[in-house]
Amino acid sequence: MSIDALKARIPDYAKDIRLNLGTLAADPTLTPQQLAGTFIASALASRNAEVTRAITDEFGTKLSPEALAAARSAAAVMAMNNIYYRFTHMVGGEYPNLPAKLRMSVIGRPGVDKADFELWSLAVSAINGCEMCLQAHEAAVRHGGLTQEQVQTAVRIAAVVHGTAAVLDGEDALPAA
Fold it and tell me: Is the pTM of this model over 0.85?
């Protein structure tokens, strides 16, 4: 499946999402690796099999095996971290001062440029709604030389991929017409 096939599945009531998906798939703000990895990490975070397959089919071949593994790793480690750090941030007290005691070595050695991995982690954190992780990863990518426009593009991709997944989940839940 391709992005075009995925877009064809989006109903007219969500045409803005369909149009944004097409536009962002060719966005020049990010490098090809950053763009492809952001799409793949966001698709995995969306938890929709059809969206994940279509986006991986479209963008997976544009990444080296190491970059594809890193995009997947960003989605995986953030699925864990976003829950833990959102808890410590929301509950407060002494929890933020306790060691996490969670293995997350991929963050230190992702196998790709650190700024790219951090950007993918940022996109996943936007989908998962972890303020603490968003702030940390935004600071890391900015420190790594990325611009506000690049950060915004990554979050726009996350938003549109998540919106696509939500629409298709809703459509699949409806009785056949």
Answer: yes
